[in-house]
Automatic annotation (TrEMBL):
The keyword Transcription applies. It comes from Pseudooceanicola albus. Residues 8-62 form the HTH lacI-type domain. This is Substrate-binding domain-containing protein. Signal peptide: none annotated. The keyword Repeat does not apply. PANTHER family: HTH-TYPE TRANSCRIPTIONAL REPRESSOR PURR-RELATED, LACI-RELATED TRANSCRIPTIONAL REPRESSOR. It comes from the Bacteria. InterPro entries: HTH_LacI, LacI/GalR-like_sensor, Lambda_DNA-bd_dom_sf, Peripla_BP_I. Keywords: DNA-binding, Repressor, Transcription, Transcription regulation. GO terms for molecular function: DNA-binding transcription factor activity; transcription cis-regulatory region binding. Coiled coil: none annotated.
Amino acid sequence: MTARNKKLTVADVARAAKVSKATAARVLGGYGVTSERTREAVLQAAQDLGYRPNELARSVSTGRSGLIGVVVGDIENAFFARAVRGISDTARAAGLNVIISNSGEDLAQERALVSVLLRQQVQGLIVAPTDDGDVAHLAEAMASGTPVVTIDRWVEGLGADGICGDDRAATAALVAQMQALGHRRIAYVTAIRTPQPRLQSLAQVRIAAVRERIAGFLSAAPAGQDWHERVHTNATGAAAIDAIVARLLSETPGVTAILASDSLVGAEVFRALSARGIALPAQMSLVAWFDADWSRVTVPAVTVVDQPTHRFGALAAERIIARIGGETGPARHQRIETPLIRRGSLGPAPGD
């Protein structure tokens, strides 16, 4: 059997370079001290043989895998896709690689993925927690020496750095602008799952960012009014959102504006309104969270709350790289401004 059709080892490289196995391992692993002549001989031998290092074995021996583990809620959501790009771009510039995982906003899946990533010897974790009330798996990772940064969702008491938008203030300011345009009956549509079709309590919302947005929406209600019944839940697909739009139009007369909790929900609400011939903004105004590509090419273009998600990802990567590098100190919470981008779908309330 020749060197080209068997699995090559450090010992093979050492023999070809005429050095000890320990010396070859130091050069190939990037640790320890060797002369420049020896280093060149080992690297040339590795190249001639076609040797490729076993990254997992090397991470075990050096304690440095060069990997960052990322767990997001829904990789199909453009918000997370852009955030992951920000993470990857920043990690690559620092000489690190990224393993991306999708939890599907399922807590059990998130726990399993974190466990897998830790077994892969990742040096740090960036996670969008599914439930900020159940983060024991993240606390355990930190206790074992793996730093954690949360993205889009701040977890109080975890002690991890976090990057998120100023969701509550942004939503309250948005609703105030809508009220200034004469909108008095505004519906909020969200993908969170609840037993009832409408929100009963903020305690039902386990994702911090979503809870902050809904809290901002509720805080804008005029004195003496309860807007919980205006929060329509379970918007988890085209059919569900179409049914929600049909229900709110028939059961909530006088609704003049809809606020969609994310870009996926916003796209389906737009489709459902268009299918019913409802003109935006003459008959209904629509605003969605996140400046997704689709929102700029519809007629009319859709007003959005902008979330600079590539920056979210880049900042999260910077924080995890700093922690991997040994930075200590209290957890840092960075809130990023999320301004309104006014487009054609938001206008004065009909008849106002």
